[in-house]
Here is the input.
Amino acid sequence: MVQLSQILEGLKGSVEGAVVSSETFRGQDVIRVEASTIVDVMTYLRDNCSFDMLTDLTAVDYLGREKRFEMVYILYSFEHNQRLHIKAELADGEKIATIEGVWKAANWLEREVYDLLGIHFEGHSDLRRILLWDGYEGHPLRKDFPLKGIPQKTTYR
Amino acid sequence: MSEKRNMIVNFGPSHPATHGVLRVILELDGETVVDAIPHMGHLHRGLEKLAEHKTYHQALPLTDRMDYTGALINNLGYSLAVEKLLDIEDDIPERAKVLRVLLCELQRIAAHLLWFSTHALDIGAMTVFFYAFRDRETIHDILEEATGARLTPSFIRPGGVAADINDKFIEKARAFIKSFPALMDEYELLLNKNKIWLKRTKNIGMMSAEECKKYAVTGPVLRAAGIKWDLRKAQPYCDYDTYDFEIPTGTIGDVWERYLVRMEEMRQSLRIVEQALDRLPPGPVMLDDFRYTPPPKEQVYNCIEGLIRHFKLMSSGYKAPEGDVYMSVEATKGELGYYLVSDGSEKPYRFRVRPPSLVNLAALKDMIVGRMVADVIAVIGSVDVVLGEIDR
Here is the structure.
């Protein structure tokens, strides 16, 4: 088990201006980082802190905040049997770099975030909708998307 | 006819071997797969969006409908996540914990039997299908005795389990423990030396441990690649660390080893079921906390305070503290995670499921490119995907 303070120290030394803040909630370590440094942060954590698996990648829509979206990355280290949450805030329309190059698992998970929340991943090799069909209008998991849905023009193919 | 072109084949969504409604677009050069693009979403019901509009209590039945082959394990994952959020995970009664393990392991055997039968059916071993389904029915009968439902019990709830079990359940479960090892031998007799089975599964669809980690593949596929990693041991919940069981592993991670790993897992699950039955302590099965759990039924029917408490919890729900939690359990397909964000209200602000099937399926392409079309069927079967969970 690597202490959060140790990870933070290393991260601050290696990726400049990355760390915004950190916290521990219910035993979960969370580091908030600058969205623009995400690839460097992930590469550092993979190579230097042995976080070798990207368990989950998702986003939350905080409608009304200045920076509307929050990306959430959940990492796991087999060696230390430890999880780490990385969060990054994004404004509406702001793009974030893909971490597909760090972990292949990010490919589909980022596609899902793009599909349901409409966040664009720069440099993604195959950014298409994954659950909804091509040509669908809107992103259902956004908070301003109504629960009953938006009627879609359906072209039967 | 001088130009050579690759053929595009739409494999699924209604092909029996695509397990539900998975559609894979295969680009074929002769019989060899050049490219494979899976298309999902035919079953998308927007469960995550729906859950954001329900109270924590009401969102539970949605979880059954994701991996419907292992519904109780889905219930457990969600319940544990909510308990972690409410910070009551240490207060859950002992009997409830043991019952959770007991039911989940029975469910795991049922889910593996479903995988086993359909996987064998895909490859052409039809008899196996009938044998395994017969025994899966037995498990469903047992689960029905406890939960009242066969497929979507919604039985494991935040705070404990919905009701206590009866003697008939114990009797049936004991009888099943006695009979199942012989049945396992029977299945293996049908397949383990079956030449066609061996040819169709050995050295097919290999994925190394390193690749598995990059793709975040978990569950039996990861274990078949040689990594001894099971959340029940790695990050124990429900006191799994006090049960005696082994984690089976493979070496090269082909279809054959995934088969062996899952078969052994059924045996180990049976061991856990037996231990759970033996240790079943007396006591309540639901936490009695006026903030979060409904009172026992006698109180609801016989005293006004109980009735009010029940009514309040069922109608307006309970407020969860602000924050976010990630909790995962070892489902039959791999790591099933729930990420809940609470804004302090009665409803989850964000309800995210980490579906093991979706993450595992992302690795499908690497497993089948360069192989024959017939192998695609064997590999999809061996990854064991449930589309209800992928599409949500």
